[in-house]
Each structure stands twice: as C-alpha cells, then as structure tokens.
Write a structure and sequence with these properties.
The protein is mainly α and 153 residues long. The protein has 8 helices and no strands.
C-alpha cells in the first residue's frame, strides 16, 4: 500500500528538481506509451492547457510513487482500456464528483492515493489550478484508472 508520505516525497522531489519530471515522463513515454496515449491523450482536447499540465503532473506523481515501491511491467492495450472503462462506467452512472469519489473509495484499495487525488482535484476555491467541472471528471477518470492499474499490476 502506498502511504501519503511517499506521495508527498515524490511531489517534493518533482518540485525541487523539475528534471525529475522530465526524466520520468521520458521513461513512461518509452516504456508505457499506451498509458499516456489512452488515459491522457484521448482527452487532451477536452482539457485546458492548465488542466492538462496538472493532470500530467499528478499522473507522474502517482506513477513515480508506485515505481519506487514495486516493479511496473508494461500494460497491454486491453489492460489500459479495462481500467479506463472501469472509471468511466462509475462516472457515467454517477455524474457527480462526490458520488463518484465515494464509489472509487469503495472500489480502489489504495485509499491514501485516493485521498491524494481527492485533495488535488476536488472543488476548492483555494486550489491554485483552475479546474473546470468537466475537466475535474476527466482528471478523476484518468487518475483513478491509473491507480486501479497500478494497484492490480
């Protein structure tokens, strides 16, 4: 299980050394291109540039944290699609952030990663990143699908 301090350490490492983000992004692009293509690339035109940058940052934060604690093998297209369908099914049936988040907390065992996602993208007037309501749901789908894959893989 991932703990919140591990996620915090990854984010602090990214903030103190931005080259770490680029290095991890290069790794993911070469080793896990389907993850980026399917989970992020298919939604790129629906997110603002700020939302896109932020979801990529959070995506890499979650991926990088899991990578520190376990070996991550490349995922097949079928595995990535199954995880994405899992997330979108919940979101389509509960087109409400709070209801969907409650279900994700019940379905995904990595509760501290789910807390991290919720704290990062939940509606909040004090959030530094402006997230639209549709953008928030897309980000939630992307990050929960990634978490589901990583916890199962």
């Amino acid at each position: 299980m991932i703990e919140s301090h591990q996620l915090d350490e990854t984010i602090i490492r990214f903030e103190s050394n931005p080259k770490e983000i680029d290095k991890l992004l290069d790794h993911v692009q070469s080793e896990q291109s389907l993850l980026l293509d399917i989970l992020i690339g298919t939604h790129a035109e629906l997110l603002t540039e700020e939302e896109m940058d932020y979801v990529l940052f959070l995506f890499l934060g979650i991926y990088g944290t899991f990578q520190k604690v376990k070996s991550i093998q490349p995922y097949s297209e079928a595995e990535v699609m199954k995880a994405e369908e899992f997330s979108w099914k919940i979101l389509n049936e509960n087109n409400d952030y709070d209801k969907a988040m409650e279900i994700f907390f019940n379905e995904i065992k990595e509760t501290e990663v789910m807390d991290f996602i919720d704290l990062s993208i939940a509606p909040d007037d004090e959030n530094e990143v402006k997230i639209t309501d549709p953008g928030r749901l897309i980000m939630l789908a992307v990050l929960t699908a990634l978490t589901k894959l990583l916890e199962e893989g």
